[in-house]
Amino acid sequence: MYITTYNPEGRTENHDISALPDSCPVCHASVTVDPKIAFFNPYSSTNRVQVVFWCPNNKCRAAFVGIYSGYSGTLYLESLLPIEPQTYEFTRIISELSPDFVELYDQAYAAEQVKLSDICGCGYRKALEFLVKDYVLSVTSEDEEKEKIKAESLAHIISKRVQNSNIKEVAKRATWLGN
Which domain of life does the protein's organism represent (predicted)? Predict the structure, then answer.
């Protein structure tokens, strides 16, 4: 699809773009959009076109920008801005058992969605630590033992305090995240 772009001097150029976005980065609804206006800076070292869209969803109506790039011929959709990260809906049991896990998981998930891949693994691992500790604390009745658990490392808790072999194996493998 060819679109007309404007450069800083107000001149126009035609650029071939691969595809239009099929979802809104703000409300995450599936949408069909039309480009409203597009910009190209011929003086930039990157061959990027910025295209403005409106979300047609009546509950959203947000403007967002598609960034297209490529070095010859067709330009491909690289990213959409702004991004409103989605959250994961956990069961009531997990949300009540470990609210800190839910919060940390959502932060790690948000980092992943905005392509902060170097830090999201650490966030997922920290979230897992809260979930496992909160689970072990919930099945422990003695206050003195609970204080010991709070001070123990995740690896120690998994190896010594998690009784279910399936949970133990999954938790052990998941600790590799962010390491």
Answer: Bacteria
Q: How confident is the model over 22-78, as pLDDT tens digits?
A: 999 999 999 999 999 999 988 888 889 999 999 999 999 999 999 999 877 899 999
Going along the chain, which residue ranges are E strands? 2-6, 12-16, 37-40, 48-54, 63-69, 76-81
- Could you give the CA distance from residue 132 to residue 156 in angstroms, rounded to a whole number? 11
User: What are the boundaries of each domain within the chain?
Assistant: 2-81, 92-174
Question: Are the CB atoms for 129 and 123 separated by under 8 Å?
Answer: no
pTM, rounded to two decimals:
0.75
Query: Encoding tokens for residue 67?
Result: 């960034």
The rounded Cα 141 to chain-centroid distance in angstroms is: 37
